[in-house]
Design a protein that fits this description.
The protein has 21 helices and 19 strands. With 551 residues, it is of the alpha/beta class. The strands form four sheets. Strands 5-6-7-2-1-8-9-12-13 form a nine-stranded mixed sheet, with helices on both faces. The protein has a six-stranded parallel sheet with strand order 16-15-14-17-18-19, with helices on both faces. A two-stranded antiparallel ribbon has the order 3-4. Strand 12, helix 11 and strand 13 form a beta-alpha-beta unit. The chain starts with a helix and ends with a helix.
């Protein structure tokens, strides 16, 4: 067997990053061709692994190799979206000779291991677990079929695989991490495996840290404790012992609360999210200290290097022409998917991210009269592009996507794209003049799409949520609409936010773009400068060692 301990990293660890960290994440967005991600959590994990490599950190990633990925978003015959589960094959992953057994639902499950070496894509080394083996029956094989399977038992089994299976792999490799990092609570069974090994909750806390990524209920799971117990989620500890070490007496098990009680320290993912987390969880007894480490993305992966070269040279004309070229490249994709021929001289708004109710993809259309008036303004014309993947069984979100498709058919300058993954995400950010982000305030933990948009010369217009208040200087490097009262009824918040967004577009942004192009370019350049270094993931990777791993 390959000596992975000896050959794990192709570098000598930097002095500040000697402590060994095992990073557990259900998804990783490393490159377009490796479909082990669904959205923002994976984008974040991918950038973190890139920066860990760049900074020579002693980090190893643990994940799952999904046979069908998340899903492939494709068109139906009427241009609305459909869900395709297509088997993924990766010849660039190394199939190791390691195979071991774990127990799920009182049944033995065989686990295989694939390895992504650091030199493949300049990341920390990542091990991917799979149950898609001929030694397993079909039910066991399905554990690693679909990322975020809609079947509850399959999701629980995947968590056991990631947490307990990941720990067993590290023991086989004799890697002995100093810190186990739960990137969200998906791998929480790891905590009970550690308790089973050490026998004391305090020994678990010495080693475990936790990042919470969302205030949304869907990201803070609650499950019947007896179902978890039956499936082996708690490493077959007696249920009364589980209740004792987690402090959860109810029959509904709160995964996030348990993680906050079993970790020595936790973090939110923006300053504002830190305040929200304290409001949500601060009143619960015996939780660990909670800090915040604002999310970031990899400059080396995301940024258009030509734009930054021209920015540093002070060559505004080349910067302007490069942006036009990038818009043309995006519009080729738009034409290929939709038949719409967009104009690189027209102001282009892009809304692209995961489709979820609180992200409000159709907010700009809340007042259809104003929206149509803006679209048909011949003096200050506008083009709008939407893209994003709903959760495949979130039928309300799928309905919003499909409704946008039908609306877009009325206007040749509105387009809706499928396949929002790393490649399309880059294209959209490179081709956007304005990156629109309008989550319901206090519901977006961080959001990072605006960071990578700014790295490609797109100006951000956003509600005041997540990371945005830490960056935006209104009218200087982007635009941020004033927050509405979050206690108002939802329809009133939507109406007020939509009005403020359209006001900002009509009264500030569009006049600047069309009547003061030099000032607009200044805002573009300020955004490109101000996004660095604070929102480059090198800062994030450093802060995790300083504020979470070494504390």
């Amino acid at each position: 067997m390959t000596d992975y301990q000896k050959n794990l990293h192709p570098y000598v660890y930097s002095a500040a990053y000697q402590k060994r960290v095992a990073y557990f994440s259900m998804e990783y967005a490393i490159v377009q061709c490796l479909k082990t991600y669904s959205g923002g959590l994976g984008f974040l994990a991918g950038s973190h692994m890139r920066s860990a490599y760049h900074l020579k950190q002693n980090v190893v990633g643990i994940g799952i190799l999904w046979k069908y990925g998340y899903y492939d978003q494709v068109h139906k015959s009427d241009q609305t979206m459909s869900v395709l589960f297509l088997e993924k094959i990766y010849s660039f992953l190394q199939k190791t000779d390691m195979q071991f057994e774990i127990n799920i639902n009182d049944s033995p499950v065989q686990v295989g291991v694939y390895y992504l070496p650091p030199n493949a894509f300049d990341t920390a080394p990542i091990f991917f677990l799979t149950t898609n083996l001929p030694d397993n029956d079909y039910l066991a094989q399905t554990i690693t079929h679909k990322l975020y399977d809609s079947n509850q038992e399959a999701k629980i089994a995947a968590s056991i695989l990631l947490g307990a299976g990941g720990h067993k792999l590290l023991e086989i490799l004799d890697l002995a991490p100093d810190v186990y990092h739960l990137n969200e609570a998906h791998a929480l069974p790891l905590a009970f495996t550690l308790f089973h090994k050490y026998g004391q909750a305090e020994e678990v806390r010495k080693r475990l840290v936790f990042t919470t990524h969302t205030p949304e209920a869907a990201g803070n799971e609650k499950t019947d404790i007896r179902l978890l117990d039956k499936m082996g989620y708690f490493s077959y500890l007696p249920l009364n012992e589980v209740r004792q070490i987690t402090g959860i007496k109810e029959d509904t098990f709160d995964h996030t609360l348990a993680a906050l009680r079993l970790a020595r320290k936790a973090n939110a993912v923006s300053r504002m999210h830190g305040e929200v987390v304290q409001t949500l969880w601060g009143g619960h007894p015996e939780i660990c200290p909670i800090t915040y480490i604002t999310n970031a993305q990899s400059y080396s992966y995301w940024a258009d290097q030509y734009m930054y070269e021209y920015l540093q040279q002070g060559d505004d004309e080349k910067l302007f022409l490069r942006k036009r070229q990038l818009k043309k490249q995006l519009f080729e994709e738009v034409a290929d998917q939709t038949g719409d021929l967009l104009d690189e001289n027209v102001f282009t708004i892009v809304w692209a991210r995961r489709f979820a109710a609180y992200k409000r993809a159709d907010l700009i259309m809340n007042d259809m009269i104003r929206f149509e008036r803006m679209l048909t303004d011949s003096e200050k014309p506008v083009q709008v592009i939407w893209a994003g993947k709903p959760y495949p069984t979130d039928y309300a979100a799928v309905s919003v996507f499909d409704r946008l498709v039908h609306h877009s058919k009325k206007y040749h300058h509105c387009s809706v794209l499928v396949g929002y993954e790393l490649k399309l995400s880059k294209l959209l950010k490179q081709g956007a003049d304005l990156w629109l982000s309008n989550p319901l305030v206090t519901h977006e933990a961080s959001g990072t799409s605006g960071m990578t948009a700014a790295m490609n010369g797109a100006v951000l217009l956003s509600t005041a949520d997540g990371w945005v208040p830490e960056f935006i200087r209104h009218g200087s490097n982007g635009f941020m609409v004033p927050p509405v009262d979050p206690t108002l009824p939802l329809h009133e918040q939507n109406s007020l936010d939509a009005k403020k967004i359209l006001d900002t577009l009509e009264q500030e942004i569009l006049p600047l773009y069309y009547q003061e192009p030099e000032q607009w370019l200044t805002i573009v350049k300020n955004g490109m400068r101000d996004i660095l270094p604070l929102f480059d993931s090198d800062r994030l990777a450093r802060e995790y060692y300083e504020k979470l791993y070494s504390s």
